[in-house]
Amino acid sequence: MAIRHAQAEWEGTLKEGSGYLKLESGVYAGPYTWTGRFADGRGTNPEELVGAAHASCYAMFLSAILTRNEVPPKRIEAKASVHLGDGPTITKIELDVEADVPGLDAATFQKYAEEAKAKCPVSKALAAVEEIALNARLAG
């Protein structure tokens, strides 16, 4: 299996300093700051990146489960809301998912959606998060 890389650099104090991060793939490189993480500043932040990783991993894993069960999806849209609480610590992640899966009933879809939540690699990596909530629905 592949090994993926990302790089981050920070200069200065927590509140006045700034950082720069880049992904090995080259699809993103940019700034991150205290205000971008804890207020309304520019740039990305670790929680946004965790959310992107979780939503994308979940969508791919759900697609694999559906395809393996012979109900391939036409489309899966996954959105992750990452809650940062005191500490700071990630206290909750909400996965909001809508999928277009022709021929699949709602109860079976929920079973597959829950399986994907439990088994996607990023969900497993985030096991220390107090709550990962899932709101999954079929389109239409």
According to CATH, the homologous superfamily of the largest domain is K homology (KH) domain
Rg for CA atoms: 17 Å
From the spread of the alpha carbons, the general shape counts as elongated
C-alpha termini separation: 37 Å
Helical fraction: 25-40%
Low-confidence stretches: none
Oligomer category: single chain
Beta content: 25-35%
Biggest sheet: strand arrangement = 1-2-3
Task: Estimate the mean pLDDT confidence.
Answer: 95
Secondary structure: number of strands: 6
Order of helices and strands: EEEHHEEHHE
Name the structural class: alpha+beta
- Count of helices? 4
CATH topology assignment of the largest domain:
GMP Synthetase, Chain A, domain 3
What is the second-level CATH architecture of the largest domain?
Answer: 2-Layer Sandwich
Domain count, please report it: 2
**Text of the CATH class of the largest domain:** Alpha Beta
Largest sheet: 3 strands, antiparallel
Structure description:
This protein is of the alpha+beta class and 140 residues long. It folds into two domains: 6-38; 46-138, GMP Synthetase, Chain A, domain 3. Helices cover 34% and strands 34% of the residues. The chain contains four helices and six strands. The chain has helices at 34-38, 46-68, 106-119, 121-125, and strands spanning 6-11, 18-23, 29-33, 75-85, 89-100, 131-138. Strands 1-2-3 form a three-stranded antiparallel sheet. The protein has a three-stranded mixed sheet with strand order 4-5-6, covered by helices on one side. Strand 1 (6-11) and strand 2 (18-23) form a beta hairpin. Helix 2 (46-68) crosses helix 3 (106-119).
